[in-house]
Amino acid sequence: MKTRICSAIIAAALTVGASAAQAADTGSWLVRARAVHIDPADKSDPVGGAGAADRISVSSKTIPEVDISYFVTPNVAAELVLTYPQKHTVYLDGKGIGTFRHLPPTLLAQYHFAPGQTFSPYVGAGVNWTTFSKNRLLNGGASLEHDSIGLALQAGADVKIDKQWSLNLDVKKVQIRSDVLIGGAKASRAKVDPVLLGIGVGYRF
């Protein structure tokens, strides 16, 4: 069911992008740079299928982020969120057991409620694809799955400074999950599912 939902969202977002290419004279581009704080949910299944849950956690951190939006109409936009691979520490019962890197591009379809106004709030929904690399857990004895695909929800607002520049406040909830493998066998499932709080500036052209 989740796979079908994600596929539908991807198809819808790609349709928006295709429409934008065909109607470039009706839209405009907006590029934002944000500082984003990643706050993981730190939920996990019991290790080995027994005992307490939520023993595995992931470090929070603040990262740079760039997003590119194309406005198909004054109200509707497609946004691609980008950053570079981020390093996190993994903890078991509060003790560090290693690190990993992840790259989490996200594609969203947005609706802007007050385009052209000084204060313009918006909401968005889309799909996140996270790829994990450089897994160094338990000195190489454990690892995470290579990829995670999940839903992403968004709310935010642009505050216009002038015709081109704006301030931006943004919050996203992203579904990022991965099996934890020990010796190639599933030992648990980590539900990172972070909340991303962002603040930044935008330039429209």
From TrEMBL:
Signal as UniProt keyword: yes
Residues annotated as signal peptide: 1-23
Domain of life of the source: Bacteria
Matching Gene3D superfamilies: 2.40.160.20
UniProt cross-references to InterPro entries, sorted A to Z: OMP/PagP_B-barrel, OMPW
GO biological process: transmembrane transport
Location relative to the cell: Cell outer membrane
Name of the featured protein: Outer membrane beta-barrel protein
Species the sequence originates in: Pseudoduganella ginsengisoli
